[in-house]
Amino acid sequence: MNNELFIGIDLGGTDIKGGLVDNAGKIVFETKIPTEAKKGPEHIFDRMSQLIQTLRDGAEAIVAGIGMGVPGQVDVDAGVLVEAPNLPGVDRFPVMDFLRERIDIPVILDNDANVAALGEHAFGAGQGVQHMLMITLGTGVGGGLILNGQVFRGAMGGAGEFGHMVVEADGELCGCGRQGCVEAYVGTAGLLRAVEQRLSNGEASSLAGISSEKRRPKDLGDAAEAGDTVAREVFSTAGHLLGIAMGNVANLLNLERIVIGGGVAAAGERILGPARVGFAETALKVSLKSLEIVPAQLGNAAGLVGAARLAMPVL
Amino acid sequence: MNNELFIGIDLGGTDIKGGLVDNAGKIVFETKIPTEAKKGPEHIFDRMSQLIQTLRDGAEAIVAGIGMGVPGQVDVDAGVLVEAPNLPGVDRFPVMDFLRERIDIPVILDNDANVAALGEHAFGAGQGVQHMLMITLGTGVGGGLILNGQVFRGAMGGAGEFGHMVVEADGELCGCGRQGCVEAYVGTAGLLRAVEQRLSNGEASSLAGISSEKRRPKDLGDAAEAGDTVAREVFSTAGHLLGIAMGNVANLLNLERIVIGGGVAAAGERILGPARVGFAETALKVSLKSLEIVPAQLGNAAGLVGAARLAMPVL
Predict the structure, then answer these.
(1) pTM attached to this predicted model
(2) Do the beta carbons of residue A106 and residue A88 sit within 8 Å?
(3) Looking at the partner chain, which of A153, A166, A247 has a beta carbon nearest the beta carbon of B254?
(4) B251 with A164: Cβ contact below 8 A
């Protein structure tokens, strides 16, 4: 049924992206509107329903389902957005019921990290495996799990939380208030802090030429590329701890694949190289043997494609 | 069908235990023979087949199935014991095929940690939940996972490996050769090393009266009970790191229950108290809310009962 289409929605703190996706995971049309998160959840989802209607009206085929990734904790069965740190006022917002009053196709929603994992599993770097972890490296470190070929959500939809795995008890402070989480080293803030610490220790680096307020992960990438020792060592240390955390997951779940995406992953082998070393040191023989670490394939499209996949019948 | 019985076999490095178990998880008869591990796998499994025959002959009901827990990595579908550190000469030993030539009921086998988790899930402290981790604290630290109500084995049967989760990068050396694994702190050797380190630092303790070669975890428990500060702090530090590791798992899998068994768990709240604190510090809100930490209920019987459960039809 190639003339069926699915609507995928990727709700972020800044934009609502919407797209028409075919059942091979191809985006045939996409658009976005500002989230206007400060105006509250009713405003957001009311405008989203209009976006959905526009997509549907413009589709040159039947829209057979609508799926959505949202930046927070989801009760998938009830279709409720439980909480979302970047969407003020959201507290158990009944997304599915709210949209049902406005659109006559049911909307399925899930956490955005799960949706990205689903997208990569169905149409990207995770194709063909039963057990995988998708890691998203950005401001934060996100995770989504596919076990037995399906999104694994756990008891209350909270599963897949990789970023706050503690790999260094009493280690660096994380944005979440804990110490030693992998995000405290590999997240944007952690990388920039590590640079700052090295500069404070008097290490020489081209990064000293950028004021600390203006320094971005992109600058680290550029400096590392140009041979800057501080930038290279910061990536190396962070990557090594990322690898240890990945090894922990592989030992616990005997995965087949770890897919790595997100902005910081753009640093590529500068961070993935040391991660592979940390992983190989940590993974037990059986975990090591069964697993490959690969870059994500879908980029930013994973959110839209995965959301649309949520609405597709299980193959 | 209460007049059906199941044979459970618990193969250890020292003994082969065998039992007749009813479908309510009650052991109606049990016995054991020495493993004689040094004589190699053919010898072990040949004698095991005789044990099974004896159990079957003595059963006052039909034996409807045979399940077995083994101390190593298992290819469950093929019925092969891939490797077993405490059983010399085992290298992809075809247990199922070997026994099929001797007994006309198929034998199902799995790793002993998975089997214990299954036993506790079906008939002990894990009843009624979909997602749980069973941790066994002893010489080593073992783990078995139940996800979606079933044993989760991962890609090659290696899942559930909790003991070698790294919680302290570059931390204490573990028996596995890695650094900072939870077992390096909570396993028997780790606990004893921590005592030794404190005594070497000149800390006063009743444990100094026992030579280091003769010191056992039981002595730590007794000393802690009698108010010894060193013993109490060793349990407290180990328990805290155990709690962090449990929090990591809870965040990744959003579990409903963690069941703790094994010999060291006999230290009870001396180790579980600090573990609860470390857990609460590490677990995210949703992980914390959904989960309870409970002691195992079946004790040593978990191995036999879980093995028998392997052979029971899925309810």
Answers:
(1) 0.93
(2) no
(3) A153
(4) yes
Token pair in block for residue A1: 């049924």
Interface contact A162-B131, CB threshold 8 A: no
Tell me the pLDDT tens digit for each residue of A234-269.
Answer: 999 999 999 999 999 999 999 999 999 987 777 788
CB atoms within 10 A of CB A272: 21
Architecture of domain B129-295: 2-Layer Sandwich (3.30)
Of the partner residues A148, A159, A286, the one whose CB lies closest to the CB of residue B156: A286
Question: Residues of A numbered 264-303 whose beta carbons fall under 8 angstroms of chain B's beta carbons: which are they?
Answer: 281-282, 284, 286-287, 289-291
- CB-based contact A284 B152, cutoff 8 Å: no
Give start-end residues of each CATH 3.30.420.40 domain in chain A. 4-120+300-311, 129-295
Given a contact cutoff of 8 angstroms between Cβ atoms, the answer to whether B101 and B112 are in contact is no
* ipTM, interface predicted TM-score of the complex: 0.92
Write down the residue that tokens 């941790």 correspond to. Answer: B135
Across the interface, which of A82, A156, A287 has its CB nearest the CB of B158? Answer: A287
Question: For A154-212, what is each residue's pLDDT tens digit?
Answer: 999 899 999 999 999 999 999 889 999 999 999 999 999 999 999 999 999 999 999 99
Reported as a single tens digit per residue, the pLDDT across B141-184 is: 999 999 999 999 999 999 999 999 999 999 999 988 999 999 99
Q: How far apart are CA B26 and CA B13, in angstroms?
A: 25
Check CB contact of B173 with chain A, cutoff 8 Å: no
Residue ranges of alpha helices (H) inside A103-187 are 112-123, 183-186
Question: Which residues of chain A make contact with B169, given a CB cutoff of 8 A?
Answer: 167-168, 171, 240-241, 244
CATH homologous superfamily of B4-120+300-311: ATPase, nucleotide binding domain (3.30.420.40)
Q: Taking CA atoms, what residue in B is nearest to A150?
A: B148
Closest to B165 measured CA to CA, from B83, B59, B243, B66 = B243
Q: Which of residues 83-142 of A touch B (CB under 8 A)?
A: 130-131
What share of chain A in percent tops pLDDT 70?
Answer: 99
Interface test with B, best of A110, A253, A287, A289 (most B CBs within 10 A): A253
Tell if the CB–CB gap between A252 and B147 is shorter than 8 Å: no
pLDDT above 60 for B194: yes
Question: Pairing relation of β-strands A80-83 and A15-22?
Answer: unpaired
